[in-house]
Amino acid sequence: MNAVAKMQPLGQLGGLGKTVAGLPAPAPTVLTRKQKAAIVVRLLASEGMKLPLSDLSDDHQTELTEAVGHLRLVDRDTLSAVVEEFCAELDSVGLAFPGGLDGALSLLDGQLSPSASTRLRRLASGSSRADPWERITGLSAELLRPILEEESVEVGAVMLSKLSVAKAAELLGLLPGDKARRVAYAVSLTGNVAPDTVQRIGQALAAQLDAQPAKAFDTGPVERVGAILNYSASSTRDDVLKGLDEEDQVFADQVRKAIFTFANIPARIDPRDVPKILRNVDQARLVTALAGATGALEASGEFILTNMSQRMAQSLRDEMANLGKVKEKDAEEAMGEIVAAIREMETAGEIFLVAEDET
Asked: Percent helix, strand, coil in the chain (nearest 5)?
């Protein structure tokens, strides 16, 4: 009741059932729930609190505003009774749900199957009153890029304007140069776009997203084929890539960029990361891999030995000499373990692979 105690001006204005400026008192009335809600909103507003009324439906916002407009004076006792009832209702709440399919989907995000989530979003898009931009702005730039590439520059400009500056910059960088320039210029023309138009564009984009079929795989075909070939024998990998060259040269080139093998170490590993990588590799397996790194793989072995302390490199060379010739299968398995360690460190963010076009 501290908030009520601070409302001295409101309490001094007189209220329902009392005379005002010498006029007869109106007959006592029973406040409706809408009027009570209006009183609570007025009280909180006087305390400087901004309520998220925009989350309500347009009809509820209209009814609440009309109730606020119709009320005039509320006496202190009535105000206290309304606040006490309001607080009692809040105290009695044990669990609150978000309300609507949009809120439920947000609550259960990541727990539903892709097919169920897609179906529910389609159902929600037809009747939802929620702001579609809340969902759109939460998506990654990679997911938004196909839509931005297909839509007109005017729609793209509205989308960029609704995104955070960082995400808009990232998305703009993913577009072809000409499209990026035209969309960026179109942003300068969005000053007079009406809110209703922005809302309709958001609803159309959300519906377009919901119409996309659920994906059965988390990664694309290039990444999946590349991951498989990473752990395949070199002879199998070479045969598959040769066949892909004959079927689809572009796809084959993309797969080659996704593949990381022992032979790619000199080109894609930062020399400063070599000591860090070796700490995650069993030394005996390292010796086996280095001893078997001959021919085209010799450069990878020398790269590793060159980018460690001279003392450790000499120790490994001595062990390699004592080990002698190793079986090709054993060497390939050991190299695979080193590659797996590198991949795990990259996934964990401990190291970063150098891109092919940076070498």
From this structure: 70, 0, 30
